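Much of the work behind modern protein science is quiet bookkeeping, done one molecule at a time. Below is the pair of lines this work produces for a single protein:

***
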Amino acid sequence: MHIHPLISDSATLANLCARMADADYVCVDTEFMRESTYYPELCLIQIADDKEAAAIDPMAPGIDLKPLLDLLVENHDVLKVVHAGGQDIEIVYNLTGKTPFPLFDTQVAAMALGQGEQIGYSNLVDSWLGIAVDKGARFTDWARRPLDARQIEYAIGDVTHLSKIFPKMLERLRKTGRGVWLDQEMERLGDTANYANDPDLAWKRVRISGRKPEVLGRLKALARWREARGAGEGPAARPDRQGRDARRHGGPSTQEAGRSRPGARPVGELGGERHWRPADGGDRGRATARRGRTAATRRSQARARQGGVAGRGPSQAAAEDPLARH
């Protein structure tokens, strides 16, 4: 695989995206800071297919990210592969109002393969490739410039390893027949409704002991004001300070939660396997990083462990398997 130097100009980025537009899949990751800003501050984007990989500096003066964003949200022929990608998807949504599509999350797929609900990226790489990930740059300040060679190498490794793991996962899912429920899970991960911040509903994220009407009224007004001001000016720190690396390397991660849209179905093929794609081609959306798995997800996990869908015979489950060859 060819590893490009750090991309910091529009022409090089546009050429890279034009080549990757013909790929079967691209692996995507981001580095960001969110400790003191309302929205996460995007500091680095990494992308790889099976032939080349690069890190892109979104903070470079004058760089045009449109070709990259179009590849992620407008090109529905290229599968986007992420690991525990809820916060990565949130960043793309904040920039475009859309989510990357179609999606495949290796953390969700690993659950279907019996590797636990929230396997960290380091453990995933070790289990599939036998490689120990260097965590030295894990807690780096990604907003500081210039980035050194070790930081860039660490960041690109997040997508180069995924580009090798994804085909292996896809093949094992097909062989085991445990990919039946992944359509629903990937739809939940990409539901835009979960990423849209509605100021009128912000009060629901605050835990209070009482439910007196006058208290709720003040809370709703205050929460609405804070959301509106934070979104408009960007100074308010978000209440969730959960670190990205804790999520990616085995800490709490609940980005799979969300809502699936009625009528979703898998279409398109990737080397004989199906992409995950909605029936109506409309907006997909967001998974919140604060809410835990839904009961439906847990039921899906139980069915996945049984190797099929509850209430259906093996032959029927295999016939509906989106990973089955045609």
Notes: The CA atoms of residues 38 and 302 lie 37 Å apart. The mean pLDDT is 75.
